[in-house]
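> example.struct
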């Protein structure tokens, strides 16, 4: 019986050219491939990264609703810097930072100034540059040298501040944390500052542990310094995480522009702002705190556009999704989301603290982040790096890492609870956690220490 005329030849997906043969990794292929072939190859490689929702190491958001995802795709082609061609996106960017200025109690939000950035790293760089430039202007006006600026940081500061100091020639002066002073709290700060200090960075949500640094106490210590020495040293608050948590969960906490010494604040829209990466925000209390000579006015595609950024072209998607989240959730919605994350964090912290090997460093009651260590002398057969490896076998990423200098002999593990880590998922994690702890405790001999790599995510 002859083959039917209307039959077609089948080409199974993984047997066709490009799927069944090799594609070069480090040079351009000599010929084209079918779009679905190229897509499948990239898709399959990305699949090897694992499930982002099970990553308990990162602060970066790993879940958005369907409307956010639609907006993200629909607006990816908008160049945020091109305010002449996309004036509505530019207007929405201004609305967003004005909302944040109001949320952070700027005396006159309309008289403040801010911008979106690519994450808090760029925001911190801009905040640091404004501190340095204002210090430089004051020194030059007084006929003083400007060759030795320094900035005061906690030893647990995020690495972006180390980059700032390296890239922009500022001496970092690290105040070590300790068991008695677990965060930068103003203790002994007078011995670190001098006439060359451009500012002090206070962290609202330390990367290592999630704890708040007491900005009010730091400001009070600097008030005391000024009363004795005349040095007026401003504070920049690195609120990468806490800036979108404290206003909703700890509204009575004074950390923001309610404190006159706070000149600028940054936060990450892509962390507890509930937007996918990468989006940051930086805001100055008033326009005079941002030196005019940091703002570039450029002619671009026929328009005159002010630019305050280290980057130039970037998509407007994240800013528009941030605005969607502000409209969608409002104050009450953000409070509900952050409270749910904190409840899960404190629940997990309590369950882990109840297990005999562990001792909490903090309990997740600031931002929904907590860390723990092994009790001193508990076991010589295993450590937290082994536990981290065992959890990774289930897909969970829970980093183990040494604390900063002065506490580097202490190893901790940390969990970041974000929107999307439900109570149900937390129960699944705890089941795997308890199972792996039981396995490690059953060992009758020490596990090898070779090849351990401290895992740490900023």
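> example.seq
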């Amino acid at each position: 019986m002859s083959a039917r005329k209307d039959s077609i030849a089948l080409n199974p997906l993984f047997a066709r050219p490009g799927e069944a043969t090799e594609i070069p990794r480090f040079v351009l292929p000599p010929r084209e491939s079918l779009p679905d072939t190229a897509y499948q190859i990239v898709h399959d490689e990305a699949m090897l990264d694992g499930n982002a929702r099970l990553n308990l190491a990162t602060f970066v958001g790993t879940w958005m609703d369907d409307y956010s995802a639609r907006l993200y795709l629909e607006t990816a082609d908008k160049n945020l810097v091109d305010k002449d061609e996309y004036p509505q996106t530019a207007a929405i960017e201004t609305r967003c930072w004005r909302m944040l200025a109001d949320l952070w109690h700027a005396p006159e939000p309309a008289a403040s100034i801010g911008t979106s950035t690519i994450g808090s790293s760029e925001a911190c760089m801009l905040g640091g540059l404004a501190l340095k430039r204002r210090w430089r202007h004051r020194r030059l006006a007084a006929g003083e040298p400007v060759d030795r600026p320094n900035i005061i940081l906690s030893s647990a500061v995020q690495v972006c501040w180390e980059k700032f100091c390296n890239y922009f020639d500022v001496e970092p002066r690290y105040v070590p944390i300790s068991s008695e002073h677990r965060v930068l709290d103003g203790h002994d700060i007078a011995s670190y500052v001098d006439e060359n200090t451009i500012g002090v960075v206070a962290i609202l949500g330390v990367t290592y542990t999630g704890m708040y640094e007491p900005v009010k106490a730091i400001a009070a210590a600097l008030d005391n310094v000024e009363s004795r020495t005349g040095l007026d040293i401003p504070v920049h608050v690195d609120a990468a995480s806490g800036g979108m948590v404290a206003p909703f969960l700890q509204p009575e906490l004074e950390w923001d522009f309610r404190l006159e010494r706070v000149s600028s604040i940054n936060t990450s829209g892509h962390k507890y702002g509930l937007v996918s990466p990468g989006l940051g925000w930086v805001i100055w209390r008033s326009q005079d705190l941002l030196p005019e000579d940091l703002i570039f006015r450029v002619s671009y595609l026929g328009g005159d556009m002010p630019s305050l950024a280290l980057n130039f072209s970037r998509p407007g998607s994240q800013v528009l999704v941030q605005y969607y989240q502000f409209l969608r959730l409002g104050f009450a919605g953000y409070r509900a989301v952050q409270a749910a994350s904190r409840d899960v964090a404190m629940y997990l912290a309590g369950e882990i603290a109840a297990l005999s090997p562990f001792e909490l460093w903090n309990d997740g009651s600031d931002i929904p982040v907590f860390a723990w260590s092994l009790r001193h002398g508990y076991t010589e057969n295993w450590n937290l790096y082994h536990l981290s490896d065992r959890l990774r076998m289930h897909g969970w990423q829970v980093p183990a890492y040494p604390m900063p200098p002065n506490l580097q002999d202490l190893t901790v593990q940390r969990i970041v609870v974000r929107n999307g880590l439900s109570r149900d998922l937390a129960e699944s994690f705890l089941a795997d956690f308890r199972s792996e702890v039981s396995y490690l405790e059953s060992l009758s001999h020490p596990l090898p220490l070779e090849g351990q790599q401290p895992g740490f995510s900023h």
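> remarks
The domain at 71-325 is CATH 3.40.640.10 (Aspartate Aminotransferase; domain 2).
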